[in-house]
Amino acid sequence: MRSFDLAPLYRATVGFDQVADLMDRAFTNDVGHQSYPPYNIEKTDENAYCISIAVAGFSGDDLGVEVKENALIVTAKKAEEDGERTYLHRGIATRAFERRFTLADHVRVTGATHADGMLHIDLVREVPEVLKPRRIEIVSGSAPAEQDVVEAKPFN
Description:
This protein is 13% helix and 31% strand. By secondary structure, it is α+β, with helices and mostly antiparallel strands.
C-alpha cells in the first residue's frame, strides 16, 4: 500500500491545491481500481480528445453524461426488465455504473454519440487568448519610441 504525506506540499505552495488534490485522488482511486465499463481515451488533434466507453446492452435513454465542477460524470442504469426471460448464461454486464473523469482547466465537452454499443464523448481544450504565448516586438534604437496617446472619454 502506498502512503504519501502531501501536507508539506500544502504548506509550501500557494495555488497548487488542485494538483495536490488530484494526486491524492489518484493514489486513493488506485487501490480500488474500477474496471467496468472498459474505456479508451484518444487524442484526436492537438487540442481535441475522445473518450470511448463500451456500453453494450445500454440504450441512449439508459445513459447520462454530465459535467460538474471540472468533472465529467458518465452514468448508466438499465431499465428494469420484466421477468419473462430465463438466462442460462448471462455474460453481457448491464449493471449500473458511474464513471468519473477529472477535466483539466479549459477543457469542455463538445458532444456525445452512442452507436454500436459505444459511447463516444468529444472534448476540446480551448486556451484563452490571455494564456496563449504572444510575441513581443523589439524596437531598435537608442531613444524610446514615441507612443500614441489616446485621451480617455467617459462612457456615459
